[in-house]
Amino acid sequence: MKDLPQLSNRVAAQFRLVSRHLYMNPLEKCNLKCKICYTKKTSPILSNAQILAFIDRYQDAHKLQTVTYCGGEVFALQSFPDLVNQTVARGAMVQVITNGTLDQLDLLAYPNRVNLIVSLDGLEEYHDANRGLGNFQKSIAFLQKAQRRGFHTEVFSIVTKQNYLQLNNFEEYLQTQLSQPVEVTYHPRKPPAYLDHHPVSNITGETEGFDFLSDTELVTLMKEKQTFPPKQLGCYQLGVMSDGKVYGCCEGITPLGVMDDEIADLLVHLRQRLIKWERENTLANCLGCSQPEFVCGIKRQLFLLQN
Ligand SMILES: C[S@@+](CC[C@H](N)C(=O)[O-])C[C@H]1O[C@@H](n2cnc3c(N)ncnc32)[C@H](O)[C@@H]1O
Ligand code: SF4
Ligand code: SF4
User: Fold this and answer.
1) Which of 44, 62, 150, 236 is the least crowded, having the fewest Cβ atoms under 10 Å away?
2) Tell me: the pLDDT tens digits for 244-281?
3) What are phi and psi of 223, to 5 degrees?
4) Would strands 152-159 and 114-119 be described as parallel, antiparallel, or unpaired?
5) Domains and CATH numbers, the chain
6) Cα end-to-end span (Å), the chain
């Protein structure tokens, strides 16, 4: 990759780092119907052949270190274990974001090359109120088995007003259940400013019992815990969605192009987004966002965080 003279050193370094990562959403369909899930369950599904052809073209153009698979629920696809195995066979690490209720672990051939990120929204009663009765225990059993088999494991956890004060209890509980410590990344419930501007992932779902965080709560959470988006941002990468469009991150609203485009062109378009970000950005020490006009609906809170 050529030098990036129009980006600051800091953002250029982050760009180099993230351009070794790909995010892939093979499908939006899911086996669960979580009450506060924000994604539309649209029909297109990318085949393994389409995904692997994109990975091959990416590797011809650029160094690739990690592929993150998300959905929908990827383990709802029978062909998913083969996709993971074939991705690892190409030399990449794989991350899978999953609800952990569908166990295909025995079919994954390279546990130590796979990081399983399981979504747990808090303690059992609260988690099951969102995800359905019995699903907390399934996901905990999935994590336990994954650790026994030698997979890397992490947890993603959605935060609302109702579980905001229970996060430390939740973390302590997790350590009692698991043989190895897990890192938890908190996802503040996507705020109305996100849902109002995202063209596809815009489902509000239920709010009773799962209220959006106030600005103060969101800012405190970002200060005290590891969150997504992170407080310094930098959360961009090429993100391929199930309809074949390619975005500048997993939450993108305006595509950079489509899967068939040249990889180099997609990366140039991503870089142009970051140049725009740097021209307009007023946040200090920030690693940038590929959707400067959107910023996941948290521009106001990021500004409050710094002031
Ligand atoms: C859309 S899910 C797809 C992967 C998988 N089905 C799962 O639940 O982990 C990706 C991540 O988004 C999180 N998520 C779902 N609804 C959310 C919301 N309203 N606000 C913030 N994060 C949300 C999920 O908990 C999960 O960690
Ligand atoms: S959060 Fe994940 S498991 Fe729940 S409905 Fe959405 S995609 Fe499915
Ligand atoms: S829109 Fe910006 S803040 Fe949100 S995930 Fe994408 S790059 Fe990160």
Assistant:
1) 150
2) 999 999 999 999 999 999 999 999 999 999 999 999 99
3) -70, -40
4) parallel
5) 9-306 (3.20.20.70)
6) 37
For residue 11, the ligand closest to its alpha carbon is 3
241 lines ligand 1 (CB under 6 A): no
Q: Is 116 in the pocket of ligand 1 (CB under 6 A)?
A: no
Instruction: Tell the residue nearest (CA) to atom 7 of ligand 2.
Output: 72
Q: 52 vs 57, 271, 272, CA distance in Å?
A: 9, 24, 26
Rounded Cα distance, 186 and 91, in Å = 29
Residue pair 24/51 in contact by the 8 Å Cβ criterion:
yes
Question: pTM of the entire structure?
Answer: 0.97
Residue 212 Cα to ligand 2 midpoint, Å, equals 18
E strands, 107-229, are: 114-119, 152-159, 183-188
283 contacts 303 by C-beta, under 8 angstroms = yes
